[in-house]
Amino acid sequence: MVDQFNLNLANVPRELRLILELLKKDNREFIEANSSELVVGIDWDLFIKQAIHHRVYPVLHTKCKEISGNLIPPNVIQKLSLEYKRNTFNMLQLSAEMERVSKIFTENHIRLLFLKGPVIAHDLYGDISQRTSSDLDFLIPINELEKAEEIIENLGYEKDDYFTSVLNDWKWRHHHVTYFHPQKRMKLEIHWKLNPGLGFEPSFEELWSRKRKSNLTTNPVYLLGKEDLFFFLASHGARHGWSRLRWLLDIHQMTGQDIDWGKTNMLLKVYHSHRVGAQALVLSTKLLHSKISDTMEPILDNKHSFRLAQDAIFYFERMVNLHTDPVLEDISKYHARHLVSLMSSRQKVLFVLSCLHPLPEDAETLPLPKLLHFLYFPLRPFIWALRKKKKHSYPRGNES
């Protein structure tokens, strides 16, 4: 089925297409034979910017060193090497902090599962220097959140983001809280869910029952089971439009591992993420030449997968950054539509219901006592209209 479909990459910059070629497995002979065609018209400054934006420069550094001849200019290799060394040092620091945090939480009888960071780099790439991470993300039971925050603050971390809540909606509307250490310059994200918003996902107890122990550290550090990790990485990448190629490279690495794809397919269906899983595998296969086994075919058997994969190419065409405000309006609208297209019918129902739930902005527009917060439900259309009116009401300047 996958062989019958090709992605249209005509508007993807040549620099990113070269990066994709370099990242493909066992592709060195092809690259060397077609080197003159591949590098013609390449803007090497943009090549480096793309590599850094997509967070793939560690693997790219290794790949470029394997290519013979003068395909990659020496100054480009030098820049990639510098970034590679910086990342290796950062990952070593994160590894030490990850083990420290895990040990302290275990001593305080709080279970935690690391979602990303060095433990995932080691698990997927066999080498922490081959993947970038800017923070440590870990999942805990929600009833341990208050205790976990107290521990983190005692370690010198400061809360880096705050959110207001109406009718306790933070528990489902958000999925993590961020802490930053001003001296160590490190960021931690404490998760109580895998993904934000109303949706379907395994409980912490389910994930804990399928956990794996990493052999990266001396003290025990736990991570998601392989099938759960694919579910998480696919849903996380899709939620961000695969706007960082690193997330797709993670999927590419997973396709070469010993995973029970039958269980993975069932997991995706049970938690209404079949479209997401199919999109991830199509993109990985078409962009990075991941090998698809017969056991993966049931995941790809989704009538929407190829269209959704093509829709994701939009993010590669523009080097989209969804993490830094302000996001351009056309990109924001496209991303909102794309997220809806990834939802199952039941997810769309939950999404509509979540839109009907009062927002913190409603309380700011019309403050009510906490006991009367239930009134925000019937009043929401009027508050929305009032907020819209205020937004478009500007004071008139002095007329001359």
Summary of the model, kept short:
The protein has 400 residues and is α+β, with helices and mostly antiparallel strands. The protein contains 20 helices and seven strands.
Give the overall pLDDT as a whole number: 90
**Strand/helix succession:** HHHHHHEHEHEHEEHEEHHHHHHHHHH
| Shape designation | globular
Going across the biggest sheet, name each strand in turn: 1-2-5-4-3
Q: Strand share of the residues?
A: 5-15%
Pfam families: NTP_transf_5 (PF14907)
Protein name: Nucleotidyltransferase family protein
InterPro entries: NTP_transf_5
Task: Characterise this structure.
The protein is α+β, with helices and mostly antiparallel strands. It contains 20 helices and seven strands. The strands form two sheets. Strands 1-2-5-4-3 form a five-stranded mixed β-sheet. It has a two-stranded antiparallel sheet with strand order 6-7. Helix 11 packs across helix 14 and helix 12 packs across helix 14. The longest helix is centred in the N-terminal third of the chain and has 34 residues. The radius of gyration is 23 Å and the shape is globular. It comes from Metabacillus rhizolycopersici. This is Nucleotidyltransferase family protein. InterPro entries: NTP_transf_5.
